[in-house]
Amino acid sequence: MAGKGKSRWADDEDDLAAEAQRKREKEEKKRLKAEKARKQEEENAAREAGPSSAPREGPARDDEYEDRPPAKRRRLSPERTAPEVSSNPNASSKLLRFEGGTFGRSRSVENYNKLNDIEEGAYGWVARAQDRDTGKIVALKRLKIDPKDRSGLPVTGLREIQILKDCDHKNVVKLREVVVGDDTTTIENIFLVLEFVEHDLKSILEDMPEPFLASEIKTLLLQLASGVAYLHDNWILHRDLKTSNLLLNNRGQLKIADFGMARYVGDPPPPKLTQLVVTLWYRAPELLLGATRYGRAIDMWSVGCIFGELLTREPLLQGKNEVDELTRIFELCGLPTDETWPSFRRLPNARALRLPPKQPGHVAGSSIRARFPLLTSAGVSLLNSLLALDPDRRPSAREMLEHEYFRQDPKPKQEAMFPTFPSKAGQERRRRKQTPLAPVRGQQAAELGSVDFSGLFSGREREERGGGFSLRMV
C-alpha cells in the first residue's frame, strides 16, 4: 500500500520526485491565476472609481495574459451617433466606410387599383392597374405559385425578377418594383409591377386587315435584334421568344417581355441544360432532337420563326407535337445531312430517325425561296441563315443587325411614323386562340423514338423551280 503523499503509480524514487514536482507546478499556476484575477478586480474597481484613481504601475508582463481568455475585438469604426465623430469632422475621414444596401418591406399591391385583366400565361397572370399615388398606368404580373409546393418561390420567378432588375434597355420591358399582398404569411401574392405596353405583336398580327409593310417589318426586326443582342451580351438566354412575348407601344417601340424561362449562362454554357424550353412552334431543331448543351442559337431560331410570322401573319411552323414540328421544319428547311449539319446524329433523338435516301431529281433542300416569293434575295438570305439547321451557322444578333437586308430599299421606317392600333390590353380581355403554351418547369421532354421521314418529300420531283416562284406541272 502506498504511503501518504506517494502516487500509487510510483515505482521508485524518481517517479515520486517527478510527481511532487508536478504538484508544485500546479499549485504555483493556481496561485498566479488567483493573483492575476485579484489584480484585474483592483483595476476594474479603480476604473469605476474614476480618473482620480491611481493607474496601474509598471508595464504588463507577457506571461500575465497567458491564461486569460482573448479580449473582445476592439471596435475600429465608430458609430455614426458617437459624440466624438459628430464633434470632430476629421475623425471619420481617417476611416474606410462602405455603404451597403438595406432590406426593407415591400410595398402593398393595394397601392394599385386594378382596371382590367389582360391575359394569363404559363408563368403568370397579367392585369392593367393604376398607381393610386401618381395615377400612372402599369401592368401587374402575379407570379404563379403552386400552394402545394413546399419549396417556396419557384426558380422561374426568382430568375425573372433578377433578370428584369438587371436589364436596362429600350427594347426590354422595365420592372418598376415588386409588391406583395396584405397577407404576408404566404408567398402566393407576389406581383411584378411592369411598365404598361399597349399591344402584343401576336394580337396585332391576328387582327390587322393588311400585313406589315416591308419597311415596318425591318423596323420590328431591328428592334428585336437589338434587344436580343443586349440580352446575349449580358449572358442572358430568353428561351421563349415568340410574338405573344413581344410588346409594341403606340410610339412604335418593341419590347421583349416574359422572362419566366430566361436564365444566365456562361461561355461555354453549362454542360447540361433542360431541353424542354421554348414554345413548340418556335423551338429549334436541336432542342427537339434532345440537345442539353445549347447557347444563343436557340434564340436566333425563334427570331427566324418570328421573321416568317411577320411576313405571313400566322405562325410559320405550327406542329401538333414534337414529331410533327420536326416534319414541318424538315419540309421548310430541308433534311439534315453531314454537309448541312455535321453533328446532328450525335443528338439523343436523332439516332433512330429514318431519313429518305438521296435520289436523282429529289428536291430535299430548303423551300424558303418558294414559300416567300415576294421577299428580296437579301431577305431570303437572312431568313435562311436564321433557320439554318446547324446552330453554329446561325448569325448572332449583332451580326443580324449588320445584315444587308436592312440597308436595302425600302429602308426601315422611323418609330415615330409607325401605325397605331386600338389597344385590347387597355379595354378588354384578349381573345386567345388555340396556341401551345410555354413548357412548364419540371415536365419531361418527349421521347421521339423511331420516326420515319422517308416519304417526306414525295411528289416534289414534279416541281419546276424558277426565279422566286414554283410551278407544279399538272
List keywords for this structure.
single chain, 474 residues, alpha+beta, Transferase(Phosphotransferase), domain 1, five-stranded antiparallel sheet, three-stranded antiparallel sheet, 14 strands, 28% helix, elongated, CDK11/PITSLRE_STKc, transferase
Structure description:
- The protein has 474 residues and is α+β, with helices and mostly antiparallel strands.
- Mean pLDDT is 81; it is low at 52-60, 81-87 and 466-470.
- The strands form 5 sheets. It has a 5-stranded antiparallel beta sheet, covered by helices on one side.
- 28% of the residues lie in helices and 12% in strands.
- Helix 5 (214-233) runs antiparallel to helix 7 (297-312) and helix 7 (297-312) crosses helix 10 (377-386).
- The chain has helices at residues 13-49, 83-87, 155-166, 201-207, 214-233, 285-288, 297-312, 322-333, 368-371, 377-386, 397-401, and strands at 112-120, 124-131, 137-143, 175-180, 190-195, 199-200, 236-237, 246-248, 254-256, 263-264, 353-354, 451-452, 463-465, 470-472.
- The protein has a domain at 198-472: Transferase(Phosphotransferase) domain 1 (Transferase(Phosphotransferase), domain 1), CATH 1.10.510.10.
